[in-house]
Design brief:
By secondary structure, the protein is of the alpha+beta class. It has 9 helices and 22 strands. It has 3 domains: 27-136, no CATH class; 146-240, YbbR-like domain (RNA Polymerase Alpha Subunit, Chain A, domain 2), CATH 2.170.120.40; 245-345, RNA Polymerase Alpha Subunit, Chain A, domain 2, CATH 2.170.120.30. The model is unreliable at 15-26 (pLDDT under 50).
């Protein structure tokens, strides 16, 4: 066989192989891959799209935002196109947005034919691949419009012992939520900024302080919403914790005597006129107790206790004490506690002559 013949045979063989490869690549076949579908609005869009769980039937609940739907698709196309789809489809999710072919843009609830919207997907349409069947065949979506609403901000603190009301900056925040959720808000709805226990414990009593960057909580009407959000998301709290200790000056505190009932009939005790009240008494201690003394919820008196021995000796003076206060946590100071006394034993009552029977 001549060289020319050999070259001719080789050329014919190569051509046959190429024809066979091309024919094989262009021959039709089917593929049934699993594909992830996502439904979400464009970042700058005012639309919200949510998907009902296709396995939930008539009582299906909305899936959390960002959820994907896994479907099995029966595809028909050339071998080369399907191989390209198979290679490209590893870990790939096809995303649909409101306004895409087959996806409505106006607010409402809609059933979708998955076969119809997948036929319009560029992954298949641009490569001449036919979508023959999809399992599940359909699902329901809801499209809504994001609306905004201003609400007042209320401050919640772990303790209520404050000087004045706590303030928030800003005092008004904006809520963004789907219209169907925003309709639950009223004029009384408020966002909440809540100060935690650890932060509260670090505040210095008596000093006006600003707690920066406290997270804002959605109004209770939107609690648990996966779509609602706040702007701003943080607020500053301005608060003054009431001092845990306090002191007040009481101009005059009355002085009483404390004598055992059995001694009352035996002695006359008189307090010098200038000493019947203690002047300028300073009361200090826990702020809540001091406040009760100030508003007279707890009466304050000074007293001089006298024992039998002191009465017998006729002591000329004694320091006054103060009425007991729950917990004994208050401190009392006076310029002069000494109370001058005049003690006199009573004479026995005279006995008259015995009357004869």
């Amino acid at each position: 066989m001549t060289g020319e013949q050999i070259r001719s045979i080789l050329g014919a063989t190569i051509l046959a192989i190429l024809v066979w490869v091309y024919a094989e690549a262009e021959s039709l076949r089917t593929l049934e891959p699993g594909i992830e579908l996502a439904f979400e609005a464009a970042p700058a869009s005012d639309r919200v799209i949510d998907v009902f769980d296709p396995a939930g039937g008539a009582n299906a609940q909305l899936l959390p935002p960002g959820s994907t739907i896994r479907v099995t698709v029966s595809l028909e196309g050339s071998t080369s196109s399907l191989d390209a789809i198979a290679r490209r489809g590893q870990g790939r999710t096809i995303t649909f947005r409101p306004g895409d072919p087959g996806i409505p843009d106006k607010p409402g609830e809609y059933p979708l034919s998955l076969r119809d919207i997948l036929r319009e997907a560029s992954d298949f349409r641009d490569h001449g691949i036919a979508v023959k069947k999809v399992e599940p065949e359909s699902l329901r979506i809801t499209i809504d419009e994001t609306t905004s609403r201003e609400v007042k901000v209320s401050v919640v603190t772990p303790g209520g012992d404050l000087d004045g009301l706590p303030e928030s900056q800003p005092r008004v925040a904006k809520v963004f939520a789907p219209a169907r959720e925003a309709r639950s808000l009223t004029d009384a709805s408020t966002a909440t900024v809540r100060v935690d226990e650890a932060t509260w414990a670090r505040l210095v009593p008596g000093r006006r302080e600003t707690i920066a960057g406290v997270p804002l909580e959605l109004p209770k009407e939107l609690a648990g919403s996966a779509r609602a959000r706040m702007e701003p998301s943080l607020a500053d709290v301005i608060v003054t914790v009431r001092s845990r200790t306090n002191s007040i000056l009481i101009p005059s505190v009355p002085v009483h005597l404390r004598i055992a009932p059995a001694e009352l009939a035996k002695f006359d005790v008189d307090i010098a006129e200038p000493d019947r009240s203690l002047i300028d008494v300073t009361v200090s201690g826990p702020a809540d107790l001091v406040r009760q003394i100030e508003d007279r919820s707890i009466p304050l008196i000074a007293f001089v206790p006298l024992s039998f021995e002191e009465l017998e000796r006729g002591i000329p003076s004694k320091d006054a004490q103060f009425s007991s206060v729950p917990g004994g946590a208050l401190k009392f100071e006076a310029a002069n506690r000494s109370v001058r006394l005049k003690i006199k034993r009573r004479e026995p009552a005279p006995t008259g002559p015995t009357t004869p029977p």
